[in-house]
Amino acid sequence: MILETALTLFADKGYEATPTSLIAKAAGVSEGLVFKHYISKENLLESIVKAGYRRVTDKSKSMVEEKDPVRFIYNVLDMPLKLVEDEPKFWRMQFRLVDEEIAQKHHLRYSHSVTQKLVEAFRQLGYKEPDLEAEVLMLLVESLWRAYLTNEDQAHFVKMLDLIKKKYRGNG
Predict the structure, then answer these.
(1) Are 127 and 46 in contact (CB under 8 A)?
(2) What percent of the chain has pLDDT over 70?
(3) What gap in Å lies between CA 59 and CA 63, rounded to an integer?
């Protein structure tokens, strides 16, 4: 109850603008109980971020286990759309926390594992610089994630996604 309430408030108002007293009140608990379970506001945030990335990892597992390199690349490109649809509050919160060390640490850990698999996919497809291709694609995915979070026009987003996918047909 506390985690879900804090996630909603952090997503809507931002981490800095959300005092623990507001979280406690919205969750229907005392502020002391919040501190009893989480010790500090920062610890509460870390718990939310860790739990969110566990859910993201579980939900994206089949996407990142794809063996066909082109389909894997397409799956990575689809991640912003699929993951944001599954966890809109979590990703809105992450968008607001882009400069927070806690959020960055967990995001980098998750994206690093995806990047390593992208390098291998580009290598299998015969790209001359698979590391650089993976880095560029991950920058594109980050941009797509932000675009999807800030733009209500899903049809336009899907159109952009389809255009990008056409560029990855296995001809490095």
Answers:
(1) no
(2) 98
(3) 8
